[in-house]
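Consortium newsletter contribution from the modelling node. Members have asked for a concrete example of what our holo predictions look like. Here is one, prepared for the NAP complex that several groups have been discussing at recent meetings.
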Amino acid sequence: MTKDYDFIIIGAGPAGMTAAVYASRAGMKTALLEAGAPGGKLLKTHKISNWPGIKEEPGSQLAMDMFEHSTSFGAVYEYGNVVEIRDGERKQVICEDGTVFTAPAVLVATGTKERLLNIPGEQEHIGKGISYCAVCDGAFFRDKETAVIGGGNSALEEAAYLTQFASKVYLVMRRDVFRAEKAVIDTVMSNPKIELFQNYIPLQVLDNEGRVGGLEISHTQSGETKVLPVSGIFPYIGADPVTGFLKNLPVLDEQGYMIVNSNMETSVPLLFGAGDVCQKELRQVVTAASDGAIAAQAAFRKL
Ligand code: NAP
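And here is the predicted structure:
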């Protein structure tokens, strides 16, 4: 089946949803293509407190509001798991189920996917004590001990979130330097339920009757090992861009992030990138939304 549009947006996170608002308001026949639920990382974020105008609200609420807004000017929400983009006068966006979407302009806003720890015991305990989404699964660990891995904004925010359920949260960092904002670090440091293990890396996940029974960690300098008696493990060690379907186009850097100019356009004319999937310094909801607006407006002007 082939479906024709003026502008195809791949990914319904903050970047894609904002682009949908701008493109459809400008009168472009717009498709907002998504393989999961709309909202992107917002769905996995407990609270957003740096979206201007709203001091604090659940990520899921902002996702829902953005989604309603994104389709309110006529953009069509379509299901599609994209496997390839073919360049041409009308670009072809090819989905896993064989559906082909075509348009002269395409925006990729597929974001990033969480990294795995890649240690023994991880794969077999995913969903059995290992989760990459504290907001989704934190409540299963009421009065239990848990570990969060990582020293960035995500790890620290989710560690703080988990303390409403868990009796204890061990925060395991491979260095003694955080990558998070000061306000987030202060929240974590003042939380008596969080115990910090700096300069430790996870070695292996221990089993207890098919579920997580503990986490063995090792000191990066001395090599000393310890077992944390946890039943839940939440890795937050960064993420990689979702760009596998772009491999045939000359638009990616060595890490797989999209290279775009100030109009969010790649070296392929009318192929745009926006949000976390792009090479950039600051990955935030507000910068993703800004990218989406710029890309949609640039596509409109060029078409
Ligand atoms: P991140 O900032 O890249 O932090 C990843 C953390 O995991 C770092 O502490 C890193 O250690 C550690 N790490 C990486 N690989 C590891 C491994 N194999 N074993 C153990 N530790 C490992 O990732 P993020 O926290 O997911 O954030 C991603 C982006 O979203 C960032 O730009 C962040 O600022 C943004 N974000 C912002 C907010 C907010 O503004 N409130 C919230 C969430 C995310 P090293 O430091 O040693 O490399």
